[in-house]
Every structure is written in C-alpha cells, then in structure tokens.
Amino acid sequence: MKIIGLTGGIACGKSTVSAYLKQKGAFIIDGDAIARQLSEPKKSIWQAYVNHFGDKVLNADNTLNRRLIGQIVFTDEKEKTWMNTTMHPLIRDEIVKQIDECRQNGIEVVILDIPLLYEANWDKFADEVWVVKISRQLQIERIQNRDGLTKEEAISRIDAQMSLEEKAKRADVVIDSSNAPEVTLQLVEKIWNERLL
C-alpha cells in the first residue's frame, strides 16, 4: 500500500486534486471531513470546544459557530495552540483507524488529504508528500471569494498555517494549481502515471 500525504494552503485547490485522485482509484482519508464529523453536536471535538469556550461558540441549532471559533483561534496564538493540541489527537486516532482498515482491505493507494499535514506531524504516516501550491495573492482572492472573508481575515488564516514555500521545500512533489482546473488535473495525471503506476 502506498500512502500519499496531500496538503497545501487554504483555497489552493487541494480538494480538486483529491477528488481527481479518488476518480483514479485512490482511497481518500479526508482530514477536514473527519474534523467536521467529530464536530457534530455531542461528538468529541464539539465537546472540547464547548468545554473550553462555553455555549458562546454554539449556534441556535446547537452546532458550532465556526466563524466565531475561527475569529478566536486565528487571532490568539494561545487559543490556536490549545486548538491544535486538543484537536489533532482526536483526528489522528480516526486517521490511524482508517489507514489500518485500508491495509486490511488491500487498498493500493491511500491519499491523506490533510491541510495541516506538516504542522501536525502527520507526514510521518506518508510514503511521500504532494503539496498543492498557488501564489499568496491568488490564495487571498480565492479565500475571499469562497468564504466571504475580509482580506484581513483571509491573511490571518493563511498566516496561521505553515507557509506554502516551506511546505513546498519539504514536499516530494509540488503541484502548481494557479491555472484552470483542467490544466492542474493534466499535471496530476502525469504525476500519477509517473509515480504510482
């Protein structure tokens, strides 16, 4: 079984690459999807946020107010550290469980689609790491358009992660997704054929 760590910055096109790799037959372990699942009311991440911040981080329907939590943790280094040290072990346990299930089921290629792959030291689970990268300016624009954030909020989220330059230096493969999606996917097809077939 080959395990590829797939990472990049926020709004860099990683999800597009991941979806394409799934079409190619890879099994995707999606760190964001795991976090969302564990953030549902009464689940482990939800409980951790409520225990730490109180009911102020809940919407009227008892779901987490992600925007408020983002404003708190991406502007306060202490709270960001708390979030990472609390959430990463909860997510890691589920990732390890899914990797074990893939091994038992004879899956050939597993993609660890994890934004904070390096920051959480989850790259150690991967045989190699692919980083999806774009320019900082394009990243800011994409975040603003996609998430409806201000420029300052977008920059705050970008700066809360390891820089794309640092991720690219550590990577085995760098995928430039600055162009149209079809151009990016042609590059991914080439990489897939060279490295995984």
TrEMBL record:
Main location: cytoplasm
Primary enzyme class: transferase
EC number assigned by the record: 2.7.1.24
One GO molecular-function entry: dephospho-CoA kinase activity
SUPFAM superfamilies, per the entry: P-loop containing nucleoside triphosphate hydrolases (SSF52540)
Span of the signal peptide: none
Keyword entries, A-Z: ATP-binding, Coenzyme A biosynthesis, Cytoplasm, Kinase, Nucleotide-binding, Transferase
Role played: Catalyzes the phosphorylation of the 3'-hydroxyl group of dephosphocoenzyme A to form coenzyme A.
Superkingdom: Bacteria
Annotated gene: coaE
InterPro entries xref list: Depp_CoAkinase, P-loop_NTPase
Protein name per the record: Dephospho-CoA kinase
UniProt record similarity statement: Belongs to the CoaE family.
Cellular component GO terms held in the UniProt record: cytoplasm
Pathway: Cofactor biosynthesis; coenzyme A biosynthesis; CoA from (R)-pantothenate: step 5/5
Pfam families per the UniProt record, alphabetical: CoaE
Keyword 4Fe-4S: no
Annotated compartments: Cytoplasm
One of the protein's GO biological processes: coenzyme A biosynthetic process
CDD domains linked to this entry: DPCK
Reaction(s) catalysed (UniProt annotation): 3'-dephospho-CoA + ATP = ADP + CoA + H(+)
Binding, ATP: 11-16
